[in-house]
């Protein structure tokens, strides 16, 4: 008999956890698992949910005044009331796939299913206490009520333990990326080309404060005075207009804002280096996808980066600051041998990147009774 699994996540917007979830869903064997996804509202990633997965958004049509009011009401409902009205149905396993509202609501459910909560962020950097919990004890109690709490990196687990407390039900389970799909999409035709003869840089992500794109632009504005390179910024979000304005006001010539791209991999493949300027991360999807394409990485020191880059074998991990970014990028621009070494290691590593080990971890998690 198939195991009935339900994932619950707030939305399917363009965040990393939402993207990883759709990758994970494609890799489940529909002969073994009957999988459902519940969201409060949809988003750009809902089109990537495979046909064999039962998808249900509570708010089916968005954009109008009524749906916006309805959305606010849902997110502010008392957790027991939300669970009573919306977390119905019988499942073997129920998964809150994101910290915050999804975790709070599922914790209040009276379901007899095995309950799992995922933590994708480093809570020592991203404060979840202020928004969702009265104090550390309340947060710890809620997470302890789950059968298993999955952290996506050792650093995200460590951050929780240092900020909130130690969980007896915690494990580390890295994000699953559909590497074969990433590599196939990277081969699609793309007419956009770099204009520089220097290093070709790219960064991809939601344009929000925590991604640190503003400090990356400060670094680029300084370094383009003495070095030749070009940076592509792929993504959309709340910071798009302010970043664009900064580029124009400061006459930055080495940056192209490309906005949201349905297939970012065809752009990443054309780059020499992927840059992650994030202030905090849990376990970066974009960095993993870049490595799958053999592109080395320059990243600030955030959760999971040392694990992903094998301590710096496939990229440079720098201090999580504007100066750290500047020093790291300047070193790559000045010494081509460093870039060539990282490129060679990343390319060789990309051949070994498969989903088998991580998928087995998920299957084991879902098939274990408690």
Give structural notes.
This protein has 370 residues and is α/β, with parallel strands linked by helices. The chain has two domains: 3-176 and 355-367, 3-Layer(aba) Sandwich (Rossmann fold); 180-350, Rossmann fold. The chain is built from 16 helices and 13 strands. The strands form two sheets. The chain has a seven-stranded parallel beta sheet with strand order 3-2-1-4-5-6-7. Strands 10-9-8-11-12-13 form a six-stranded parallel beta sheet, sandwiched between helices. Helix 9 crosses helix 14. The longest helix is centred in the C-terminal third of the chain and has 15 residues, at 336-350. The radius of gyration is 21 Å and the shape is globular. The two termini are 18 Å apart. The mean pLDDT is 91.
Strand content: 15-25%
CATH superfamily of the largest domain: Glycogen Phosphorylase B
CATH topology of the largest domain: Rossmann fold
What does the radius of gyration come to?
A: 21 Å
Residue share in helices? 25-40%
Q: How many helical elements?
A: 16
């Amino acid at each position: 008999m198939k195991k009935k699994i339900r994932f619950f996540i707030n939305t399917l917007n363009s965040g990393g956890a939402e993207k990883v979830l759709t990758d994970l869903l494609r890799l489940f064997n529909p002969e073994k698992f009957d999988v459902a996804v519940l969201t409060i509202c949809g988003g750009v990633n809902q089109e990537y949910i495979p046909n064999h997965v039962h998808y249900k958004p509570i708010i089916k049509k968005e954009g109008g005044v009524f749906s916006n009011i309805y959305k606010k009401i849902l997110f502010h409902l008392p957790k027991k009331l939300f669970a009573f009205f919306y977390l119905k149905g019988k499942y073997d396993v129920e998964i809150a796939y994101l910290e915050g509202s999804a975790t709070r609501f599922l914790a209040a459910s009276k379901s007899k299913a095995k309950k799992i909560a995922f933590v994708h962020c480093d809570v020592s950097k991203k404060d979840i206490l202020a928004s969702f919990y009265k104090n550390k004890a309340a947060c710890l109690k809620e997470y302890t009520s789950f059968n298993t709490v999955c952290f996506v990196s050792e650093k995200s687990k460590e951050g929780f333990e240092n900020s909130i407390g130690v969980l007896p039900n915690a494990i580390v389970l890295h994000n699953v990326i559909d590497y074969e799909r990433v590599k196939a999409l990277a081969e699609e035709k793309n007419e956009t080309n770099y204009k520089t003869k220097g290093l070709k840089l790219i960064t991809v992500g939601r344009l929000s404060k925590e991604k640190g794109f503003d400090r990356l632009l400060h670094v680029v504005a300084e370094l383009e005075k003495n070095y030749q390179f070009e940076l592509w910024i792929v993504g959309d979000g709340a910071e798009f207009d302010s970043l664009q304005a900064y580029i124009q006001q400061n006459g930055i010539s080495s940056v192209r804002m490309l906005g949201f791209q349905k297939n970012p991999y065809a752009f990443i493949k054309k780059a020499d280096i992927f840059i992650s300027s994030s202030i905090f991360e849990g376990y970066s999807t974009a960095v993993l996808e870049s490595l799958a394409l053999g592109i080395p990485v320059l990243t600030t020191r955030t959760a999971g980066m040392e694990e992903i880059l094998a301590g710096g074998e496939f990229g440079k991990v720098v201090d999580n600051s504007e100066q750290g970014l500047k020093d790291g990028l300047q070193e790559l621009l000045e010494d081509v041998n460093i870039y060539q070494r990282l490129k060679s290691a990343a390319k060789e590593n990309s051949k070994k990147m498969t989903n088998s080990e991580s998928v087995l971890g998920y299957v084991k998690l879902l098939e274990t009774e408690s």
